[in-house]
Write a structure and sequence with these properties.
By secondary structure, the chain is an alpha+beta fold. The protein is about 25% helix and about 25% strand. It has helices spanning about 10-30, 40-50, 120-135, 145-155, and strands spanning about 55, 70, 75, 90-100, 105-110, 160, 170, 175-180, 200-205, 205-210, 215, 225, 230-235, 235-240, 245-250. Strand 14 (about 235-240) and strand 15 form a beta hairpin. Helix 1 (about 10-30) runs antiparallel to helix 2 (about 40-50) and helix 3 (about 120-135) runs antiparallel to helix 4.
Length: about 260
């Protein structure tokens, strides 16, 4: 396994890609309202990314037909944009990638549509915080297991299910690079012993279910749903390891 170490110049380019992806994510999230379709959400993301001179990383990736993965309620990840209409109380995960200057940015956030249930709000709060628990452990000299274990401990101790078939990843000139970054400690995996060092870049992305870990892939071969039909949330930041600690590269600068 080879992990690419990025230079300061590389990181500045990744920050640009990350900012574009984050702005597209937040712009779409702000515009969510009942009656919109997931295709409408995708168009907002697509138009913003292209308008910034970048290319949507996901469009055509492995045959994916959208510029964003738009996953609603029980959909965990990889929701194909289409005619599904959003309703009051829905939660919507908007996963966005942008490619510019030779590098990718990748990020996801789960947004509410109007007022949501206490159960949904608690899921969003826990999943979002677990992301920051993982980021806090992404210190030079720590190991990948420290990051993965922080996410796992935070969510599992609160009774939530952790999706195990999908995970975070390295990122840079390729959308998906080594290493894989699961949301739990994979016992026996050599990757868990990777020592974090400045210049490493990867995405941490908890995918957390209200009840149980089990998922299923739909007939479209993309959309992943919880097997029980319970709600799922997905939060993702792209980070860089620096001598001073982790730096988030997918922060929005929208007014």
């Amino acid at each position: 396994m080879s992990i690419t170490i990025k230079s300061k110049t590389d990181l500045e380019k990744m920050r640009i890609a990350g900012r574009i992806a984050a702005n597209a994510r937040d712009l779409a999230g702000r515009m969510l309202e009942p009656g919109m379709t997931t295709r409408d959400v995708d168009k907002i993301v697509h138009d913003y990314i292209v308008g910034q001179g970048a290319v949507p990383s996901f469009l055509g990736y492995g045959g994916f037909p959208g510029s964003a993965c738009v996953s609603v309620n029980e959909e965990v990840i990889h929701g194909i944009p289409g005619g599904r209409k959003l309703r009051p109380g829905d939660i919507v995960s908007i996963d966005v990638g942008a490619h510019i200057g030779g590098f990718h940015g990748d990020t996801c956030w789960t947004f509410p549509v109007g007022k949501i249930s206490d159960e949904a709000q608690a899921l969003l709060d826990v999943t979002r915080q677990s992301l920051f628990e993982g980021i806090a452990k992404a210190q030079p000299g720590n190991h990948l297991a420290d990051v993965c274990g922080a996410v796992e401990q935070y969510c599992a101790s609160r009774g939530y299910g952790i999706v195990r078939e999908y995970c975070g990843h390295g990122i840079g000139r390729q959308l998906h690079e080594s290493p894989e970054v699961p949301n739990y400690v994979q016992n026996g995996s050599r990757d868990m012993r990777i020592k974090l060092q400045p210049g490493m870049t990867f995405c941490i992305e908890p995918m957390i279910n209200v009840k149980g870990d089990a998922i299923r892939v739909c007939k479209d071969k993309w959309t992943v749903r919880t097997k029980s039909g319970c709600l799922s949330a997905h939060f993702e930041h792209m980070i860089a390891i620096t001598p001073d600690g982790p730096v988030i590269l997918t922060e929005s600068d929208l007014d």
